Amino acid sequence: MMQSVMPLILLPIAAAIITFLVRKSSTLAALIAAGAPAALAVFALSNNLSNPFVLLGRVMILTTGDRLAIVFIFLSASATFLGIWRTSPRWTYYPVALVALSAVAAALGARQINATVIGGRPFDAFQYSALFMTIAVALTIFPLQGGRPGVAGGTLRYMTLTVLALPAFLAAAWTLDLYSQSPDATALAQASIVLMLLGSVLLLGGVPFHSWLSAISSESPPLSSAFVLGIINVGAWFLLLDFAHEIKVFGTDPLTFTALRVVGITTALIGGLLALAQSDFGRLMGYAVLADIGVALTVFSIHTDAGFTAALIVVIVRTFGLGLMSMGLALTRQKYADDKFDTLTGLAWRMPWAAVALIVGGFSLAGIPPFAGFAGRWAALQQVAYTDLGTALALLLSTIGVAIGTLRGLQSILKPIASADRQPFRTPRLTILLLGGALALSVIVGLFPDLISPAIRQMVTAYLGQ
Amino acid sequence: MIGLLIAAGLVVILVNWRLLILALGVQYLLLGLMLTRAVPLELAAVKALVGIIICPVLYITARRVKWGHLDEDEETEEEKPRSRLSWLISPGLPMRLIVTLLGVVLSLSLALRNPLPIAGDQITSRDLTIGIFSLLLLGLLNAALNENPLKTGLGVLTMLAGFELFYTVIEPTLTIVGLLGLTNLIIALAISYLTTAWATHPHEVQL
After folding, report:
1. In this complex, is the C-beta atom of B73 within 8 Å of any C-beta atom belonging to chain A?
2. Rounded to a whole number, what is the distance in angstroms from the first to the last CA of chain B?
3. Using an 8 Å Cβ cutoff, are A332 and A344 in contact?
4. More confident residue, A112 or A444
5. Closest CB from B152, B167, B204 relative to A149
6. For A249-258, what is the mean pLDDT?
7. Is B85 an interface residue toward A (CB < 8 Å)?
8. A13, A108, B124, B192 - which has most CB atoms within 10 Å?
């Protein structure tokens, strides 16, 4: 039992119960919430966990690729919880977030040992993945709203658009099932591909279903947004990789990759252009992530091992920029009414650490050297530059858009203020330590991308070589 | 089936939260009843039961937030003379009525032309297809036309109900039905949470 996916599904739920019981001590709850996924990630890294596990009457098996994906997601969740502990003392959603984490693990672990055993129904596991992912999405609505009175628009949009992915995926499973019984009916294959594409774009937040991204980034508690954009969204990416590999019709048809390419380029361009026009750090973060999603989709659509690797590097290094920027936002929201550039004029003099986190986070999301995001953009540009100059130019424009948006913010926060107002707000040492660690990691990954790329290549090989 | 269409239509047309939740409850009951034509009784009962659990959750929330009547609304409403039917007829009613009728006609036309081959006999397939298309379309309209979390949420739940009418027939396994039910319940709780937040004035909270 312990050598299966079971601990990764059930132990976060156990941790959720404990954090609920100790909720009055926010430090203890945060440390348990951060410690449990970190310990499980180490456990998953050092064990194969490939034994079968029966959940709800279905046999589930964890593949190597999904195991490594869960390790990354759990480590990111642990870092996010630490960030929440230091920046948002009134955040009380650890139990819900841990159960959502368990649902993501179940979504990625919902694989059958041998599809043909299940009465010729090879798409059973796929339905379970979609259902568990939707449960994870629905659970994150609570921390995303965050108990802020009178504010619900962004979270409502997120719920409406991402929940719509479930019918699309389940209908795709049905048409695939029909297609497996009548392989000559190519219309069924086409319908299933369209439905899967629709579900994937809805879940990932690609254009035209992107309106929730900027809305939650400006409305919701920053680290709750980071949880959704850096963990749930990344989980959805791994699910897409699973689908592309396991469902041959979807993973081999040129329609899939042409459509993903069009959506990817449009998303990257719109994200970059809208980021350029923002005058608010929260919305800037949302559009920077949108541009990042577009870049990842574009290189994913190249449909080569190197393309998949580049897409995963983009998705994984996003966590650094997103984490830093959301921590910076969380710190500034403790002292300022909103995230507008005008409101944060002179921030560098009063909250230097928050200012550095915002700017480095923004530049990292834009893919500017020497920060972590550069590793992803460089890998992406390498894939498209020699084959498609137009696409390379589009990706470059999206990078420039996010970078200019961040520079406009930098201009405001560096503006000199009257010396009487220069009295800095105190930032606790532990928070500085955490921010400093995240900044150092971002620079190290940006300067030495080879530190993470072999692990990502191993992940892609595990996915594609299964 | 006609009852289901009327209930789904009322969820789009009405704005009174009491009636909306009642219409949703009736919609779930009729959906369960319709499902008995194609799936075992216990599965249809699970579907109806999930709906019956969702309605009190939403009812309690709506009651807690004074049925969506914010204090400011009450102040402005007091100045206007109110007609006897003002609780039922509200601004935008003709538009919602037209949109609903168009939605029903469109789904009827689509369903009659392309009935989904999901049940044993043709008549059941046709009726189920009408129910599926109507719920999906009316749910989508309701979610798209409104900004308040309760109405939008009811749209999302109606859409999911329409999809489940289809999916329970083609995949009548208790595990899938159970997981879909759990998803519905979590979404209902989320709607409830968002509605409470939306209806709470910032000044009511001590900062």
Report:
1. no
2. 51
3. yes
4. A444
5. B204
6. 88
7. no
8. A108
Which two structure tokens, joined as six digits, stand for B104? 């029903």
Asked whether the predicted pLDDT for residue A112 surpasses 70, the reply is no
- Measured on CA atoms in the order B27, B29, B30, B32, is the torsion positive or negative? positive
What are the residue boundaries of the structural domains of chain A, listed by start? 267-466
The residue to which tokens 């909103």 are assigned:
A338
User: Which residues of chain B lie closer than 8 angstroms to A156, CB-CB?
Assistant: 147, 149, 152-153, 194
Give the closest-approach CA distance of A332 to chain B in angstroms: 16
- Whether B198 has its CB under 8 Å from any CB of chain A: the answer is yes
Residue B201 corresponds to which tokens in the numbers above?
């004035």
Task: Report yes or no: B194 at the A interface, CB cutoff 8 Å.
Answer: yes
Distance CA B92, CA A260 (A): 39
Which residue do the tokens 């996916």 mark?
A: A5
Among A72-76, A223-227, B15-19, B137-141, name the one with the lowest average pLDDT: B15-19
pLDDT at A366 over 80: yes
Question: Residue A412 carries which side chain, given as an amino acid letter?
Answer: S
A127: nearest CA in chain B?
A: B176
A contact set with B (CB within 8 A): 56-58, 127-128, 131-132, 134-135, 138-139, 141-142, 145, 147-153, 155-156, 159-160, 163-164, 166-167, 170-171, 174
Say whether the ipTM exceeds 0.95: no
Mean pLDDT, rounded, for B36-54? 91
The pLDDT score that the predictor gives to residue A89 is 79
Question: Which among B152, B166, B180 has CB closest to A156?
Answer: B152
- Identity of the amino acid at A433: L
**Terminal CA-to-CA distance of chain A, rounded, Å?**
22
Contact between residue A4 and residue A70 where contact means Cβ atoms under 8 Å apart: no
pLDDT above 70 for B59 = yes
Length of chain A: 466
Query: Quick check: A167 and B163 in contact, CB under 8 A?
Result: yes
At a CB cut-off of 8 Å and minimum separation 6, what does A442 contact? A320, A321, A324, A360, A364, A371, A372
Tell me: the pLDDT tens digits for B170-206? 988 888 899 999 999 999 999 999 999 998 865 444 3
A198: pLDDT strictly greater than 60: yes
Whether A328 contacts A347, CB under 8 Å: no
Residues whose CB is less than 8 angstroms from the CB of residue A177 and which lie 6 or more positions away in sequence, other chains included: A121, A123
Average pLDDT, chain A: 90
CA distance A104 to chain B (A): 14
* pTM of the predicted protein model: 0.92
The candidate with the shortest Cα–Cα distance to B156, out of B171, B141, B176, is B141
Contact B193 A145 (CB under 8 A): yes
The label of the residue with tokens 């809208």 reads A274
A53 backbone dihedrals φ, ψ, rounded to 5°: -140, 135
Rounded average pLDDT over A368-378: 95
| Mean pLDDT on A211-217 | 94
Q: Residue with structure tokens 């009728």?
A: B101
Mean pLDDT value of segment B63-70: 80
Is B183's CB within 8 Å of A167's CB?
Answer: no
Q: Are B133 and B110 contacting, i.e. CB atoms less than 8 angstroms apart? A: yes
Residue-level pLDDT at A455: 86
- Interstrand relation of A58-60 and A53-55 (parallel, antiparallel or unpaired): antiparallel
Contacts B178 to A, Cβ<8 Å: 56
Task: Tell the residue number behind the tokens 């999809």, with chain if given.
Answer: B163
How far apart are the C-alpha atoms of B98 and A426, rounded to whole Å?
59
Q: Looking at residue A118, what is its pLDDT?
A: 37
CB pairs under 8 A between A and B: 89
